[in-house]
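cron nightly-structures :: item 1 of 1
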Amino acid sequence: MKKKAMSMLLAGTMLASMLAGCGGKEGSANNAGEGSGAQTAADGSTELSIWVHETDSSEEGKLYGALVEEFNEKYAGTYHATISQIARSGDAGGYDDKVNAAISNGGLPDVYTVDGVTVAQYADAGAIVPIDEYFTEEELSDYNPSIIQQGTYDGKLYTLGAMDSSVGIFYNKDMFEAASIMPATAEDPWTLDELTEAAKKLTTDDCYGITMSLDAKDETLMYFFLPLVQSQGGNVVSEDGLVADGYLNSEKTVNLLSWLKEMTDSGYASATPAENSFELGQAAMALTGSWEPGNLAKFDINWGLMPMAKYDESSEAVSACGSWTFAVSGNCAEEKKEGAAELVRFMTSKDASARMYGANAMPPARQSAFAGIEAFDNELAVFKYQLANTAKARPVSVNYAILSSQFATAVQNVLTGMDVKEALDEAVNQYNFQTDMQ
């Protein structure tokens, strides 16, 4: 399996890097360092290297730099970290390319950032190592449950994050009031039938009931809609993350795609939505992620936030989650691992998690960090509730990138006229073909 995982890692940029609202900015690496045997600075401190996926041209990147400086101040004489900040995109020079090349040539740093959905691939390839032994159960209990789920592979914890994400239904308060619709609450989400009925009531000749990014051809579709499969007690891959047949094309996934087709066929949602249709009043609701408030601030709209819908009354409420994390690399020398784990602890502390919201508007990965952020007691309270109570990580699978791509293709095929079961069976066939070819 490690050979397969390695081939996937070296294939190119992971699909998850395309998620809307989470992209990095162009820039260049600086202060590069590689994991190696223990190196000692003049003051006797152990040298550590760390790579991150944001340059200092962004507020998130500036925060990473500041945190490393603070780490060095706190641990002066014990540890000293050197940071490389690498843009996520760029011709053969983006972050994923740098990491994949380093996996191939043994040049990984001691610590580096890993997108949550790639944990299984990196762990299986030996590119990251378990960190369980360096953290107490009490410490880990403060992280959102989904952060632990996302970072765990084969029963071992490999990554921890400072930020998380969530998806909800943003709604136009004025349109809801005019239509006499009461919004759902965090504790009592709508069912799909209730969401459909509201969308029907809100749809007019010049306004869709809801917009859902249905023209996406990337990770967005899995991220947004997997919870509606999980809500029914299903998933798109087996528990070991390897088998798609009977999961990706199961009755539960058929139910989801059939609903998406019904929404577009009825005209309640557009299969090719216009950009900013919700913000411009061309849609009454928007199924989208926790990055949306930053966009809404640019528009004159009276908005509210509802939780992710559940499939039906007998279903479980499930919501999306997950984001970038920190890991100790497989190249980190044994004598440096304790220091590397301490750096991961520092970069994902309560303070770092709270400051991350200020830098990139992403929800904290630690429950204690929500306390000082007013928005999560008010307009964003739904996200706080979901991350503590209903969030489920995407499959921790070495084949995740293929799985996500085939799910997105199936959705597009259905929305352009293909039979739902036929589209999902074809997705399974393509998944099997691609995984067998690795």
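cron nightly-structures :: done
The first strand starts at residue 46 and ends at 52.
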